[in-house]
Each structure stands twice: as C-alpha cells, then as structure tokens.
Design brief:
two-stranded antiparallel sheet; alpha/beta
Length: 341
C-alpha cells in the first residue's frame, strides 16, 4: 500500500516523523519491513515518474544529479580533489581523484565506477559518496567517468573501466597511488563493472584487484530471481526500467550471456579478489548480488555479504534522506581500509 500524500519535503523529515506519517501504510515483504525513510523516498520517486516514459537523455541524466543533490549529504572537505584524464581505448577518460592527505607515501587506491544503469551517472552524481569513502577509509579514490549508453553501447563502459584499472596498476604513481594496492568498487551498474573488471584482470594477465566492493550489483540479465519477481513494481528500478536500461546498454539479446555483461554466468570464479557485497532488501537486484557472493564463497573467495533488509536501491547515495546510507558507507570505508592496509 502506498501513502497518498507523500511529497519531496517529506524525504527529509526525521525517522520519528516518517513513522507517524506512514502509520497504516508500512510496506512489508515476508519478514522484511521497509525503512520508513526509504519508503518515503521510494514512494516520492514513484509519484513523479510516468511508467514507460523516459525523457530525453540530457533531462534524464539531470534528474539523477538533482535527486542526489537534494537527498545526499554534502561532500566532506578533503585535502585533495583533482580532475584528471586517463588514456582510454577511445580517447581520454575523465576521472576525479579524492584524498584526505597530500604528499607523503603513495596511498592505497580504490577505482570507483558509478551506477546509473550504464545510461545515467557521472562524476557529480557520486561526488559525495567518493569523497566520504576517501575520508573515512583513508585511501585514494579515483572516480571513473566511463562512456555511457546508448551513445556508446556495450562493451564501451567495460573497455573504459578496464583501461582505467590497468592504468592505475601501471602508472598510478603519477597520481600518488600505490600500484600494489588497488581495489575496485561500484554501485549497481558500477558494481557490475567492478565484478567484470575483476574477472577480466584475472583472465588477462593483469594483477587482480586487492579487493572488490559490489554495492547492489547487477550481475545477470535473466531477471529470474525471487526478488525480481517480488519487486517487479518496486521502488527506484522497477522491472520496466531495468529492461529499458538493458535495451540502451546492450547491442542485442546475445550480449545478455556475454560474461563482460553478466559476470554471474562465469564458469569459474576461482582466483577472484576478496569481496564485500552490499544489497538492499527491497531492491530487485538483491538476490543476484547474494547469488554472486554465494558463487564466490563456494570457489574459496573470502566474501562479506551484507543485506540492509529495509532498504531500497540507491540508498547509499541518498544519505540525507536515508540515514542507513551513511551507515553502509562507513561499513564500506572500514572494509576498504582493512583490506588495503
């Protein structure tokens, strides 16, 4: 059941106020009850969308920037925030370096690949998250602004992210990165790209990442899990939106089984880097993230799996509206700090 009177202002009220507002309207799924702040955000997002309608790309991309600007905490001040370019297969790849120190020894590094369905997202939409990870983990974070679909179809994003990772391994000292300690991290589509880069590094002779952080990752295109069925009309990324993103990103049906698009389909995951996998209980991608963690663990990979049972997709990027997003960010930062030490 949805609440009939939710609006943008309600996304920033306290949890206590949210519980009062939602009295009689709480959303449940089996043993899970949606976080009241997440429910208000999710219902607001639903209310401003027309199912099946997608505005022109510039407007669509601005929508994500605006949502994050309104619902995410401001980025913390850092000693270093620097825009750079990294050589890529189709020209220079824009990137942004974050660090809470300047000078001294090279820092352990995390390449960050943003989410947004391979269609949205950029250095601005994930600026706050990357800055928080750099501050709380004490590492150098390098955000990668890979090419987006549909202008650049699969595997353009993969090629850019792999090139950026390889560059950090080979030339990271140029930006004070420790080339021996390089992690990959990303949310949603960026979680997909992190898993794919880890696999391609293992098969292509490049050192595998020191660890990988997959935040509600998309790792398959079959959409056959229980969470995809139960949450087909879910918040933020209902099934029709997931299908639309897939159509923009992939060139054909055949790409759905390409391991560079669907890393869950790899025959073996042996030799993959240690992983932190974060999922949300009310996210259609929940079960495929768990399945990927189960596969990694079965192959002997060290896996920390963490479901936030009351949360929705994108909650880690909406920390002002959904405080659990900050808790997850700090957990991710702690994992990076320990694994990259």
């Amino acid at each position: 059941m949805s609440h009939p009177k939710l609006e943008l202002a309600h996304t920033l009220i306290s949890e206590e106020e949210a519980l009062r507002l939602l009295d009689g309207y709480r959303i449940r799924l089996g043993s899970r009850t949606m976080d009241p702040k997440a429910q208000i955000v999710g219902e607001f997002v639903k209310s401003v969308r027309v199912p099946g309608f997608y505005p022109p790309l510039p407007e669509l991309r601005q929508q994500l920037r605006t949502m994050v600007m309104l619902m995410d905490e401001p980025a913390p001040a850092l000693a270093r925030v620097e825009d750079i370019s990294i050589p890529g297969p189709a020209g220079e790849i824009p990137a942004r370096v974050y660090a809470d120190s300047v000078g001294g020894d090279p820092l352990p590094t995390a390449a960050y690949f943003h989410g947004g369905g391979w269609v949205q997202g950029d250095l601005e939409t994930h600026h706050g998250l990357c800055a928080r990870l750099a501050k709380h983990a004490g590492v150098l974070v390098v955000a990668i602004d890979y090419r987006l679909a549909p202008e650049h179809k699969f595997p353009a994003a993969v090629d850019d992210c792999l090139a950026a990772y390889r560059w950090l391994r080979a030339h990271g000292r140029d930006i004070d990165a420790d080339t021996a300690r390089v992690a990959v991290a990303g949310d949603s589509a960026g979680g997909n790209l992190s898993a794919v880069v880890s696999q391609l590094a293992a098969s292509g002779g490049t050192p595998v990442p020191t660890c990988q952080v997959l935040i509600y990752p998309a790792v398959d295109f079959s959409l056959e899990t229980d969470s995809h069925r139960e949450l087909a009309e879910g918040h933020v990324i209902p099934r029709d939106r997931i299908l639309w993103y897939s159509e923009q990103y992939l060139r054909s049906e055949a790409d759905k089984t390409d391991l560079r698009a669907a890393p869950l389909r790899a025959q073996s995951l042996a030799g993959q880097p240690p992983a932190l996998i974060v999922t949300a209980g009310f996210d259609p991608l929940r079960d495929e993230g768990k399945a990927y963690g189960d596969r990694l663990r079965k192959e002997g990979v060290d896996v920390v799996y963490r479901e936030y049972p009351g949360e929705i997709h994108a909650f880690v990027s909406l920390t002002k509206a959904i405080p659990q997003g900050m808790a997850a960010t700090l957990e991710i930062a702690d994992y990076l700090q320990r694994r990259l030490a």
